Amino acid sequence: MQSCYPSSLSLYTPAQMGEVDRLSVAHVPVSTLMENAGRAVARAIRRHERPARVLVLCGPGNNGGDGYVAARHLAAMGWPVSVAELTAPGVETDAGRARAAYAGPYVPFAPAEAARADLVVDAVFGAGLSRDVGGLVAETLRAARRVVAVDIPSGLDGATGQVRGYAPQAVMTVTFCRLKPGHLLYPARAMLGRLILADIGVPDSVLAAVPANTWQNEPGLWKLPVLGAQSNKYTRGVVSICAGQSMPGATRLCASGARGCGGGAGAGGRGCGRSGLQAWSARIDSG
Fold this sequence. Notes:
By secondary structure, the chain is an alpha/beta fold. It folds into two domains: 2-219, YjeF N-terminal domain (Rossmann fold); 239-285, no CATH class. It is 36% helix and 14% strand. The longest helix has 19 residues, at 30-48.
């Protein structure tokens, strides 16, 4: 089934993306993927935001590691950057090494620091969040005036799009490799701001080894028959539409859609009035 649909439209749950990350290690070092992700965040900020005082909020995991890399690249671009870490990552972890490569200033992880910054980069928790966000993290994110999220705003469930405790409203979200269902489901979808999907170098062979079972509903997913020179309404398939007489609006929309995508002859059921059925059939057949 994976080969039937464009890979670019596939959606990966946080669990599936975790498996992709695990398998990618055999082909690409985690540090390389982290470097690519953090650089993508910095480049997106440079492209879409004006230079400003930036505070990067880093969690202890790989999402925080992306934040340290983004902070380093923004500083190299000449932006005034500080980092506030919820908990420092282990020294021997990939996030710990990303932290060591960042040579800029640190400030406390506190609401007052977030309020002082012009732009806050939320690299605290990623799409795989498994608990509600509250306490200091929620208070600090709530104090931010403008937020750019790494992967997904902290507090949003990457699988369901639901809010876990508190989540900030972002002006931009930069995610990687493939979108998650939570990026497209409400209420999360309305909280992402500009959504950017960055390629960070995950091999296609790894994605093929973890087949997706959910896809975006986009034109690339739709499989329409190819019409030949001798095609007619009887070779394109029959479209059956049934509706009540008093509220035919949805049925008319269905008929218009069938015509637009190349539907063949039209037919109706018992619930349709004769004049209405004739009108809808004419709409389809005339295409």
